[in-house]
Structure formats: structure tokens, C-alpha cells
């Protein structure tokens, strides 16, 4: 039987580490991967640096008296929407209400956490996974949102596997393009120019993993890739690339187990990316200069509802993304 929280990445913020580890022991036994920090400032740095599936936040911790509220407020300002469950104690009813207004998804009295925390985390994660496709369709850049929308409408195993693999390839391709556009030029071991002329799903995965190993990889690329491939989890994606190749060459027949494997991966990615990745893409329409600053009007491409008219003001003219292999805007 698969543990309730198998491979679920959870950030735990509590200034009493021994107490936190004791309360979270049932969660760890349920398969969760826990990362502990002891203050709101440490939690902010960690939660904005890599994606998590859930957060457990003690309200009463540094900084100040109610560091949990400070953390939720800062995360909201940063646009990070990782589902948070707060631990409240005696006399913190008002703070618990404020936490829910700042976006906390649920709360548990700290005195009851030893018996309730596991079930509440499992319920919250299950709810988030159930909503993951809708979140991806509404919040991710349009090239990804459109694929997730087609995947959601697939009705049988063959179509679910086919649409799921196409969606996964779209994620790898999009991440690779972001990486190539934002990473300084560097050799990519194992990637030949001929492969990039007609890239396969496996090529996109190789490009992503090679770029991800570079010290200077672009921030938005590494953040996006971490939503799909947490540390040490590349084999799961490689297995699905192998599945795609087996189906394409007639060696493998799609099964319900394949569909479930794909669905789990895509929902995890969709939930993480919708909550954590803050990159945007758009198509420029006009640009003006008033002598001190540039104003660029562009159509933001997010979700499946059509372009969103947007404006960007900057002291420097916006520049096209450049390719990592030759550093020219034309090679994209």
C-alpha cells in the first residue's frame, strides 16, 4: 500500500525543532519528505527558493512575536501560493483568523497536532491534487495551459496516456526553451546540434538536466524545472520518456497503471508550478520612450482565456531572449 503522503515535499517552520520533529513523525512515516527551518525569515528564503507541496507554519515564532503571520504576509506579497497549514496555540484565535485571511488553507491547534496533523495534511494535499489541473489551466503560461486543458478532457486510457505524454513533452520543451534563453552560453554535454534540429522528448529532458547542472543556470528555469524534477527524481521522468518511445515503436501498450503514473506526475507539477513559478510570457505590441523610461505594451499569455493586455515600465529597453548555445536572438 502506498503511504498517504509518499514523496510529498513539506516545509515545516517552527522555532521549537524538537517539538516540530516529534509532531511530524507520523507524517514522515507516511512517506513525506520534510525540511525543517526555525524562523519565518528562514522559511521565506526556503519557500521562495524551491517548490514545496505543503507548508506547516507555527504562528508564534521569530521574527517578532507572530512570525508565522509575517511569513504568510510576505509569501502573499511574493506571489507564492504554496498551501499552508498553520499551528495555533492557546490565546491565538485572532491570529488564526488573520492567518486564514492571509491565505492559510487550514489550521490545527498545536495541542492536538500529535493526533490530527497527519490526517489534516493528507486531506489538504488530496484537495490540492484534485484541483491541480484546473490551477494549471488557469495560471500557467498559455502554451502549457492549453496542453493541460486537452489532457483534462481525455476520456479513456489510450487518450489519457497520449495526451499526458504530449503534455509532459510540452513541459520539458517549455522548460528547455526558458533555460536556453536565460542561461549564459556553455557546452551541454551529450547534446549534439543535430539533435536540436529535430528534438525528441528525450532530447528535451537531456537539455533540461544538462542546463540544470550548470552553476549559472537561469533562476526562472531552475525554479520551473524543480516543479517537475525535484532533486534526485529525474528517473521518474525518464521512465515516462521510455514509455513514450515504447508506445511509438509498438513495443508497449498503454495501461491504466501508465495513465495513473502520468496523472500523478502532471498533477504534482501543475500544483507546484501554479503555486510557485512566477514567470510570465508575452507578445510585445508597442514601446514608447519619454526621455527617462521605456513603456512596453504587451499581451500576457496566461491560462486559456486569451491574451491579457499588460504594460511594463523600465529604465532599460526590454531585450529579446537570447539562446544559450550562440547568444543571439535569432537562434531561438
TrEMBL record:
Residues 9-125 form the Response regulatory domain. Keywords: Phosphoprotein. PROSITE patterns: RESPONSE_REGULATORY (PS50110). One of its GO terms (biological process) is phosphorelay signal transduction system. Pfam families: Response_reg (PF00072). It comes from the Bacteria. The modification 4-aspartylphosphate is found at residue 58. This is Response regulatory domain-containing protein. It comes from Phytohabitans suffuscus. The lineage of its organism: Bacteria, Bacillati, Actinomycetota, Actinomycetes, Micromonosporales.
Amino acid at each position: 500500500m502506498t503511504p498517504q503522503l509518499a514523496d510529498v515535499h513539506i516545509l515545516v517552520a517552527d522555532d521549537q525543532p524538537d517539538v516540530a520533529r516529534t509532531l511530524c513523525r507520523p507524517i514522515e512515516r507516511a512517506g513525506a519528505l520534510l525540511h525543517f527551518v526555525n524562523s519565518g525569515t528562514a522559511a521565506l528564503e526556503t519557500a521562495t527558493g524551491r517548490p514545496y507541496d505543503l507548508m506547516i507554519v507555527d504562528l508564534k515564532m521569530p521574527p517578532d512575536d507572530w512570525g508565522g503571520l509575517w511569513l504568510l504576509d510576505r509569501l502573499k506579497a511574493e506571489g507564492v501560493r504554496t498551501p499552508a497549514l498553520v499551528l495555533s496555540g492557546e490565546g491565538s484565535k485572532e491570529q488564526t483568523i488573520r492567518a486564514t485571511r492571509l491565505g492559510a488553507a487550514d489550521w490545527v491547534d498545536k495541542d492536538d497536532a500529535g493526533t490530527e496533523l497527519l490526517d489534516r495534511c493528507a486531506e489538504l494535499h488530496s484537495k490540492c491534487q484534485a484541483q491541480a489541473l484546473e490551477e494549471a489551466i488557469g495560471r500557467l503560461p498559455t502554451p502549457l495551459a492549453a496542453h493541460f486543458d486537452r489532457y483534462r478532457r481525455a476520456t479513456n486510457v489510450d487518450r489519457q496516456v497520449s495526451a499526458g505524454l504530449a503534455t509532459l513533452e510540452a513541459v520539458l520543451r517549455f522548460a528547455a526553451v526558458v533555460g536556453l534563453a536565460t542561461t549564459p552560453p556553455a557546452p551541454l554535454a551529450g547534446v549534439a546540434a543535430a539533435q536540436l534540429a529535430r528534438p525528441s522528448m528525450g532530447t528535451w529532458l537531456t537539455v533540461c538536466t544538462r542546463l540544470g547542472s550548470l552553476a549559472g543556470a537561469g533562476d526562472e528555469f531552475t525554479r520551473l524545472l524543480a516543479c517537475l524534477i525535484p532533486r534526485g527524481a529525474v528517473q521518474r521522468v525518464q521512465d515516462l520518456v521510455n514509455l513514450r518511445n515504447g508506445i511509438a515503436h509498438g513495443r508497449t501498450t498503454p495501461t491504466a497503471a501508465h495513465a495513473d503514473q502520468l496523472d500523478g506526475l502532471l498533477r504534482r507539477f501543475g500544483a507546484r508550478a501554479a503555486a510557485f513559478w512566477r514567470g510570465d510570457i508575452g507578445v510585445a505590441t508597442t514601446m514608447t520612450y519619454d526621455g527617462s523610461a521605456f513603456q512596453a505594451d504587451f499581451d500576457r499569455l496566461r491560462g486559456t482565456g486569451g491574451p491579457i493586455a499588460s504594460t511594463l515600465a523600465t529604465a532599460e529597453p526590454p531585450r529579446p531572449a537570447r539562446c544559450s548555445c550562440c547568444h543571439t536572438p535569432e537562434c531561438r
